[in-house]
Write a structure and sequence with these properties.
The protein is an all-alpha fold. 78% of the residues lie in helices and 0% in strands. It is globular, with a radius of gyration of 22 Å. The C terminus is likely disordered.
Length: 482
Amino acid sequence: MLLNFVIVYIVLSIAVSLWAAKLVHNTRDFYTAGRSLPLAMVTAMMFAGWFGAETVMGIPATFMQDGLLGLLSDPLGAAACLILFGLFFAKRLYRMNLLTIGDFYRQRYSRGIEVLTGLAIALSYLGWVAAQITALGMLINLLTNQALSINDGIILASLIVVIYTVVGGLWSVAITTSIQIVITVISLSGIAWLLLDQVGGLTPLWQHALTKDAFKLPSEVSPLLALAMLTSFLTLAFGSIPQQDVFQRANAARNEQIAAWSAIGGGVLYLIFTSIPLIIAYSAHLIDPNLVERIMAVDGEALIPALIQQELPLFAQIVFYGALVGVILGTSASTLLAPSFMLSENVLRGLFPRPLSDKQMLLLTRSVIVSFAVFVCGYALEAREMDAGLHDMVEAAYKVTLVVAFVPLVAGLYWRKANNRGAWVSLLLGLTVWIGGEIGLSDSEVGAQWWGLIAAILGMLIGSLLPHRHDVNEPSIATRHY
């Protein structure tokens, strides 16, 4: 019955996606939903874009293992990203009437910068989308009582997400996400209430966490540890700002005010409601400590599904799995669309000898969605072999955008002297230092992306300020003000 319900839920979601296809008349509809969405819908997309498998399964497992320090990147850094984007980036980018975030790099710098940042941003999505596909594969494995392996589930999940995504574009994501995120929040809140009722409320849970040192806060913070903590936070807080999925949701808003406030609201909601999966997972300590010990020794990300299957009635299980499948489908769709848009619009389009018609561009984008999904599936299968967790895949996804795309974006929007040469030096120096650090400083507490970020900042300053006669790609006065 549980499996049948999930199948029906997936079929209904695909049906909504097919219906949403009627609203797609051109590439702008497919990419931006016609820039016509209201505040509630855009806020729901912002919130739901982060509230995926990593939030429900990955973050609780990381907290159980590492305490509060494990939450610096996600949810703290992730929520900060949306709030910062709303405060400092959304309005300026919205006014430029761009189709993708990659268009900014072409208009402000050059075609070369557009292609390289486009490739880097698209590459960063492999880990994020793979985390969603992996989680859905794990659920398929669980719901079929291991009749399908996790790898089989990942392959099937990839197929489902492609069908769900390729038809309706951002319209599909907007409509289904707005419905799914409400169902998800209500469902998880109800499940948390049922489990808290078993343990006697939040007070016993809090006392147990304090007694057992669940937060695992260090007694002393050395300068090196502080830098490592800052790096972990900034990887998502800064590294996910120049991302197409965040931009495309804001860009779908009816006006710039909605674009800004929806990002801020989405970040605040994400920070608040991330506590629900943490409460659900930690309640297992009081309900069944043996279950916690057994699951955490094998795969901590399976703790919440195992707890719900063991402790709650069938109806609650149906509600949970329906909600979880919903958020995974919504997050997978939006994060699969984003890199596909970038590759189609900012990398591949310029390779054709003749301009593509709108119909041809739509066909190209949908073909890229399918192709990228194949790469994601392969990456997810490989990550399983390497025993990479959902949290690890997500955090790794934003290192490349932090060192490649973040500094040129900030400088391009806020520094008049930033120019094409500065962008090239920033990009190449940041990338080189980061890759070198990943190879040579693999045992360091501080992530190599920190040194890559510093190098990118220096590269932008040096490259832009060095005397030069004339930079042909330097933006005109008209394009410097947003």
